[in-house]
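User: Sequence recovery, please. Input:
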């Protein structure tokens, strides 16, 4: 939409960057540049485009130059109905063309990927059960996990198992079966029974074998193998590969954050969690990311920052992990009364939670780190 035809290369480059970034999401079917560019400069009916290309959603936008400023707008539309799912605009200096391209690409991809996922959840919700295929069961499982309740985690597990029944080689479903077991232990502070742990590790390893460079599978399976399997080196390799394959995938940075945390790389953990929240600012997982950051601040003896991060997490979900993490930071910050109250709330939620469980609840790699956490929990009032 610029008056300067020489700026056309900027719009073309932007489109190509966004297409490339979206194509890294293995769960999305993304039409290639050569096909989408046939619509360039034309007034098109999105419903017609959807039918012609065989897609459910269309992303369209414009680039406008005004002096040294560039304004970019974009909108995501459901092809069948014409419903607008998302819209936003970005502005920047023309002098930093490629920096602006990177900024817009990251923002667009980070914002629309969750919207697409939510739209798919809604689509599957109204589909009759007898017509569900493996992918539909997977989506229902993912939707259930967003509720973060004990019953929804179990419901998600059942959906993911059904997805595997219909497609035994569904790598993401195997990864999420493992993830649901990890969630039960991580959120509720109750160590898994041996058979449950073994099932989680088995599915995570199978997911890793089937991953075929899928960054989502690599990240989630690597996270589980680190947390439940204590396979630290393997977990690091998997999450690093995931963020390299798709640097716009929020959950990959989330898992990298926790793997770094468990491997005693606190600063890298904080950087990873911050990147995750920037990419997906409304993601339910940001609650756990704040909690992970709180743990990292504890490791760095930045206790007041740790309290702040834990409190952000507790505002949404005061569970065993967030309460314990607040307590260890608070007691070391000299806020013992607040730490004691947090432990009291924790014991009301999980009466059986004990300091002796620290190696399972907080499986950091080195015993001396576990001892530091256990000592802080003990000083905050948690029984042995």
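Assistant: Recovered sequence (384 residues):
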């Amino acid at each position: 939409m610029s008056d300067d035809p020489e700026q056309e290369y900027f719009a073309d480059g932007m489109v190509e960057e966004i297409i490339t970034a979206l194509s890294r999401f293995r769960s999305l079917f993304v039409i290639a540049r050569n096909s989408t560019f046939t619509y360039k400069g034309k007034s098109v009916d999105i419903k017609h485009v959807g039918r012609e290309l065989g897609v459910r959603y269309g992303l369209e936008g414009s680039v406008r130059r005004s002096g040294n400023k560039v304004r970019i707008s974009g909108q995501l539309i459901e092809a069948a109905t014409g419903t607008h799912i998302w819209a936003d605009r970005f502005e920047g200096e023309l002098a930093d063309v490629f920096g602006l391209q990177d900024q817009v690409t990251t923002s667009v991809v980070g914002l629309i990927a969750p919207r697409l996922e939510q739209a798919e959840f809604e689509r599957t919700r109204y589909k009759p059960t007898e017509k569900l295929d493996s992918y539909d069961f997977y989506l229902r499982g993912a939707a259930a996990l967003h509720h973060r309740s004990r019953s929804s985690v179990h419901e998600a597990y059942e959906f993911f198992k059904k997805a595997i029944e219909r497609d035994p080689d569904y790598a993401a479903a195997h990864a999420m079966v493992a993830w649901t077991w990890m969630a039960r232990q991580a959120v509720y502070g109750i160590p898994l029974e041996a058979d449950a742990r073994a099932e989680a590790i088995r599915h995570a390893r199978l997911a890793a074998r089937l991953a075929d460079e899928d960054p989502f599978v690599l990240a989630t399976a690597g996270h589980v193998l680190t947390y439940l399997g204590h396979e630290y080196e393997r977990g690091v390799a998997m999450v690093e590969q995931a963020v390299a394959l798709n640097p716009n995938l929020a959950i990959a940075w989330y898992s990298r954050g926790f793997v770094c945390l468990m491997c005693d790389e606190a600063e890298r953990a904080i950087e990873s969690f911050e990147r995750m929240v920037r990419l997906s600012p409304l993601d339910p997982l940001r609650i756990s990311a704040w909690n992970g950051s709180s743990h990292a601040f504890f490791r760095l003896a930045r206790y007041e920052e740790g309290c702040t991060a834990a409190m952000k997490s507790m505002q949404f979900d005061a569970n065993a992990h967030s309460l314990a993490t607040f307590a260890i930071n608070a007691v070391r910050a000299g806020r013992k009364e607040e730490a004691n109250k947090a432990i009291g709330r924790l014991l009301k939620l999980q009466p059986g939670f004990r300091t002796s469980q620290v190696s399972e609840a907080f499986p950091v790699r080195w015993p001396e780190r576990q001892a530091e956490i256990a000592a802080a929990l003990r000083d905050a009032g948690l029984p042995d």
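Residues 17 and 377 are 48 Å apart (CA to CA).
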